[in-house]
Amino acid sequence: IDKTSAIVIITEVIFFLTDGEIPSFSVDMLRDMLPKNSRVVIHTVAFGDHADSTLLKGISKLTGGQFKSIK
Predict the structure, then answer these.
(1) Phi first, then psi: what are they for 18, rounded to 5°?
(2) Residues 51, 21: contact at Cβ < 8 Å?
(3) Distance in angstroms (rounded) separating the CA atoms of residues 44 and 60
(4) Which residues are paired to 67 by β-bridges?
(5) Burial 25-52 (b: 16+ CB within 10 A, else e)
(6) Which candidate among 34, 37, 39, 50 keeps its CA 20 to 30 Å from the CA of 13?
(7) Which secondary structure element, helix H or strand E, spans residue 16, and what is its range?
(8) Count of C-beta atoms within a 10 Å radius of residue 67
């Protein structure tokens, strides 16, 4: 293998465990915060019956992560 022509792809992974109740936060705000030239995958885990599942699903979808809910 010619290592001088190898492409290196680095993916950062975040596991976000929360009740999902994040005042004044949106998926659009997250999109603006993420580095433009890197790959960040965010998996979200919602705890409780009152978790904002819509927001957490949106975060996971935006970044190619997965959403799970724990009641």
Answers:
(1) -160, 170
(2) yes
(3) 6
(4) 44
(5) eebeebeeeeeeeeebebbbbbeeeebb
(6) 50
(7) strand 11-18
(8) 18
Give Dmax (Cα) for the chain. 53
Which amino acid, 27? V
- Bigger pLDDT: 30 vs 10: 30
**Residue 43, pLDDT score:** 94
Q: Do 50 and 19 touch, CB atoms closer than 8 A?
A: yes
User: Which residues are paired to 68 by β-bridges?
Assistant: 45
Share of residues in the chain with pLDDT > 90 (%): 27
> Global pTM?
0.75
Find out whether 44 and 68 touch, Cβ atoms under 8 Å.
yes
